[in-house]
Amino acid sequence: LRGKKHWNCQGGIDKEHVRIKQTQEYKNWRNKVYKKYNWTCQDCKIHCSKEIIVAHHIKPFSTHKKLRFKVGNGVVLCRKCHQLIHKPRRKNYYEQPIAQGQERAKH
């Protein structure tokens, strides 16, 4: 699916967004997040290959500019879990605290 029918459509990607994600600063942030979580999806707990790993911003990239490159604002997800995070019923999923010893729901 492409355009407005794509599951993650946000009304178009602005050029600043694309430009920032191509910078070395962004790539360094992403790699630090991968290492922090040992390349493991924090939802389904699978070890991710480079083809399926995603560094997800906990506080949105578009609205929290000061947190864009803070490792603490990143979490590792596989592509499938990342897609689920962006479905409306799971918005702000990683902003919600979980009880100690409890795991997040699996997909």
Broad structural category: alpha+beta
Oligomer: single chain
- Number of helical segments with 4 or more residues: 3
Count of strand segments: 2
Mean pLDDT: 81
Distance between the termini: 21 Å
Gyration radius, in Å: 14 Å
Strand order of the largest sheet: 1-2
Order of helices and strands: HHEEH
**Fraction of residues in β-strands:** 5-15%
Largest sheet: 2 strands, antiparallel
In helices, the fraction of residues equals 10-25%
Low-confidence stretches are 98-102
Form type: globular
Topology (SSEs and partners):
Layout (H helix, E strand, L loop, with lengths): L14 H6 L3 H13 L16 E5 L16 E5 H7 L22
Antiparallel strand pairs: 1-2
Short account of what is shown:
It is built from three helices and two strands, in the order ααββα.
Describe this structure in words.
There is one protein chain. It is built from three helices and two strands. It is of the alpha+beta class. The protein has a two-stranded antiparallel ribbon. Helix content is 24%, strand content 9%. The two termini are 21 Å apart.
Q: Any descriptors?
A:
107 residues; alpha+beta; 3 helices; 24% helix; 9% strand
